[in-house]
Amino acid sequence: MASDEIKKDIKDDNLDNENIEEKTETNETEDSTKTAEKEKNENTNDKEYDELKDKFIRLQADFTNFKRRTEEEKKNYIELGVKKVVNNLLPVIDNFERAMDSVEEKDKTYDGIKMIKDQLTEVLAKEGIVEMKALGEEFDPTYHHAVLTEDSDEYDSGVVIEVLQKGYLIEDKTLRPAMVKVSQ
């Protein structure tokens, strides 16, 4: 009987070993499935992270470009406004100069006109708007508007010999070209 019990115990042990092996195989399969799913989730998360990161970088670049464009547009609008106002003031300065030229006696009226004209030109100079030098300069179509030409023994050909209307620069750019007479 003892051998029957031993045989039974061995049989039970074999069954237990088979069950353990089956459970181990099942656990290994489950573990590998879980690992595969985990890797798949990690890959999906990495892809989603990369996509979100890319979108964020693009959005940040778009915002930076938008900010730069709006600042540039604002600057252009301000420059345009300044140019319009100054272009409307330049004829006033021209008229002050004509008034000064027409005065025969340099009296207090002349001094008052000169003071106002000087004050206007000083205000414009503070904003970077200055009178351009044209008389005796080589004719340059970017700065001068030739209205007349004249033969001259005194000047070489292509030189400004008379300024009919002063020109003005705004920060080294032509605001109003000078109307000039040029030698031939």
TrEMBL record:
Q: Where is this region: Disordered?
A: 1-51
Recorded hits in SUPFAM superfamilies, A to Z, give: Coiled-coil domain of nucleotide exchange factor GrpE (SSF58014), Head domain of nucleotide exchange factor GrpE (SSF51064)
> Where is this protein localized, as stated in its record?
Cytoplasm
* Primary subcellular site in the record, as a coarse category: cytoplasm
> Any stretches that span the bilayer, and where are they?
none
Q: Which InterPro entries match?
A: GrpE, GrpE_CC, GrpE_head
Q: Does the keyword Chaperone apply?
A: yes
Source domain of life is Bacteria
Coiled-coil segments: none
A Pfam family for this UniProt protein? GrpE
Alphabetized, the UniProt keywords read:
Chaperone, Cytoplasm, Stress response
UniProt xrefs under Gene3D superfamilies:
3.90.20.20, Head domain of nucleotide exchange factor GrpE
Supply the NCBIfam families for this chain.
PRK14140.1 (NF010738)
Indicate the family of this protein.
Belongs to the GrpE family.
Query: What functional role does this protein have?
Result: Participates actively in the response to hyperosmotic and heat shock by preventing the aggregation of stress-denatured proteins, in association with DnaK and GrpE. It is the nucleotide exchange factor for DnaK and may function as a thermosensor. Unfolded proteins bind initially to DnaJ; upon interaction with the DnaJ-bound protein, DnaK hydrolyzes its bound ATP, resulting in the formation of a stable complex. GrpE releases ADP from DnaK; ATP binding to DnaK triggers the release of the substrate protein, thus completing the reaction cycle.
Instruction: Spell out the subunit comment.
Output: Homodimer.
Q: What is this protein called?
A: Protein GrpE
Q: Tell me which species this is from.
A: Peptoniphilus olsenii
The taxonomy runs:
Bacteria, Bacillati, Bacillota, Tissierellia, Tissierellales
Chain's gene name: grpE
